[in-house]
Amino acid sequence: MSDRANELRDNLLQVQERIEKACQAAGRARDEVNLVAITKTFPVSDVRALAALGVRDVGENREQELKVKAPECPDLIWHFVGQLQSKKARSVVRNASVVHSVDRSSLVEALSKAAVGEEKTVRCLIQVSLAAYGSAEAATGAGRGGVEPSAVPELAAEIAAADGLELGGVMAVAPLGSDPEEAFAGLHDVASRLRSEHPGADWISAGMTADLEAAIKHGATHVRLGRALLGTRTPLG
Ligand SMILES: *Cc1c(COP(=O)(O)O)cnc(C)c1O
Fold it and tell me: Where does the record place the modification N6-(pyridoxal phosphate)lysine (predicted)?
């Protein structure tokens, strides 16, 4: 194995241990939590190395990177987790099977049209803003995206009714400066209400390198991990 492959293997082992411990602490079964490796800014060789170690789910937050990497590794399940312009919907639908960041009606329409055109079914998660849950950010206005919890039912109905789309659940990023416990507890409430209307929408995509334990404690089914697996990112220009 190359040095890099060794490093990724060690990181993956540590991450698996963190997830396992968090599941134990939360009284949850390990197989309730799925790992999505966020490979943004890292080369496709890293994606291949992770795949060789058994990682199946990978995610990107920029359409430009997704469309280059995904065709190189078509056997993996590709997730899109970033802000998405409607005009990039077709490219994202072509290259990913899950979109975690659905946050407006116009995007639902664009994704639906693209999915029908590509003859695919795309699983859509509603990105929820957690600014209302005990955050310092609400005051500063430094939002991290997503719809207000009160807007979730309407957007959910639109996704559920759209051709080519499947309503998968919710996604969130804990607000900067907030207590992730409070934020993810709020997300859990939003997810429970959604599931009572749409039983199949049972995914909670929450938890990153800094806060995966809090997310798992509050019901995350998909943790999105970048730095813990791949190391520090160099910002893209
Ligand atoms: C980059 C990113 C992640 C991974 O963050 P880390 O802190 O590197 O684990 C998760 N979710 C989204 C939406 C991201 O953009």
Answer: 40
- Enter the tokens of residue 234: 């160099």
Give the helix, strand, coil percentages of the chain, each rounded to 5: 50, 15, 35
Cβ contacts of 184 within 8 Å, gap of 6 or more:
130, 172, 174, 206, 207, 211, 214, 215, 217, 218, 219, 220
Structure tokens, 28: 């949850």
Residue 5, judged by CB atoms within 10 A of its CB (0-12, 13-18, 19+), counts as middle
Q: Tell me if 156 sits within 8 A of 167, measured CB to CB.
A: yes
Ligand 1 neighbours by CB, cut-off 6 Å: 38, 40, 61, 81-82, 173, 208-210, 224-228
Which residues, 6+ apart, have CB-to-CB distance to 30 below 8 Å? Answer: 19, 20, 23
Which of 38, 60, 100 has the most ligand 1 atoms within 8 A of CB, as the residue to mutate? 38
Give residue 141's pLDDT.
Answer: 47
d(CA 8, CA 152): 37
List the domain boundaries for the chain.
3-229
DSSP state of 199: T
The two tokens of residue 181 are 């416990």
- Nearest CA owner, ligand 1 atom 13: 81
3-229: CATH topology:
TIM Barrel (3.20.20)
**If the chain, 237 residues long, is cut into consecutive pieces of 10 residues, what is the mean pLDDT of each piece?**
94 98 98 98 98 98 98 98 98 98 98 98 98 65 80 98 98 93 97 98 98 98 98 81
